[in-house]
Design a protein that fits this description.
21 strands; FAD/NAD(P)-binding domain; five-stranded parallel beta sheet; protoporphyrinogen ix oxidase, domain 3; alpha+beta; about 450 residues; three-stranded antiparallel beta sheet; 3 domains
Length: about 450
Amino acid sequence: MRRIVILGGGMTGLALAYLRNQNPAPGDDILVLEEGPQAGGSIRTLHEEGLVLEAGPHTLRTTAAAERLISGLDLTNEVLVADPRAPRWIVRGGRARKVIPGPAGLLTTAIPFGARFRALGEPFVAPRPAGLADESVHDFFSRRFGAGLARYAAEPLVSGVRADDPKTLSTRSAFPELWEAEVRVGSVLRGLLQAPHPPGPRFRPRTVSFRNGLASLTERLVARSQRAGVRVELNAEILAIEGPFDGDDDGIWKVQIADGTIYPADTLVSTLDATAFASLLETRLPRSASRVSALAYSRLAVVLQAFRPGAPEGRPARIRRPGPARRGVPVPRCPLSLLALPRSSPRGSRPDDLVLRRRARPVAPDLTEGDLLKLAEAEVRRLHPAIGPRVHGRVLKWPAALPRLPVGHHATLDLLAQDLAEINAGHERPRLVVTGSWRDGVGLGERIARAEELAPIL
């Protein structure tokens, strides 16, 4: 019997347990330990007053692995697909401006003419200096596309997607596709346009949600996994990890949780945040523990609000049903910056019933829920002066939302790889596997793809 213990019941942990259990060796035992009262990690769908509200991630950008998982869980008929032609938006000069995804976005009026003209010259910029192993997103965009694009595109991108500062965030770790595009041909634009494609039909990702919210995916994962014999233990705060032990029939690892229970494991999989992981295993990670434990996380508050649609006097209110087809409206960083403005979907409502707005913003310690609701409502009314009264409001705070990957983060991961290679050396199956948003990407589709890669080797 092989005992596999997965630390963390978020998307990666649940997907990995489910996929590994699809073709287990006889007698395999798979256990997921989740410290919280519910599985799903950052996925948090609320059902309030007939509304479906996403208090964590609000959509899933699919990968091929994610599409296979959705199909395997029989959720295809529950999928809501965003309109791929729907534009993104950023705020400049006090109003939202349309941005076309991809290189064509350089032509948008959301970016001043001079900045656009400079950005279009990117293919003629000198290649990356020899020896430059990493640089901040701000410096990367400034060097390749000019200061204007760094301000009007990179800042909203980093704020909306990563909740981070472009002057400290690593391009190589946070946006590897941009970094690698320059490596291939010396130009980001030409590198993206000439990116190699694997043989066979080209995969086209979709942006999706589900009729009852993203939690439909994690709930189905838990139900199907438990029915097949996977154990999911909730409220299982991990106090200590002992091991690895060689030749111990009672387990290579011993994992103790807060109630005193000790679980043996032959393979330990960590999906924990960087700080928790390093504190539990620091003596086993002599090269990387100090650097991993120093990683910071952004503190965010998600502000969810519902409004009655407004219209000029004498004219009926007409809006399109809000749903995943609506894109975000990030703005350049400022003390009260708006990080995202996607819309959630009312369940069972008519198209003209409600307009929902969602904010994710850095949390100032002295801001109360009432303060955040007022600030977010003021931002909505500044962009949509004719909107009607607010009829629902809710705030959820995340003390450790997204990892802040500093310049040079790749060196930390290299040291971690060396530590893991030493722990796993000489063994047919790995004894310790480490994944998580700080190592393998923050997107839900990326997390599912990583789980699919790891499942066969455990």
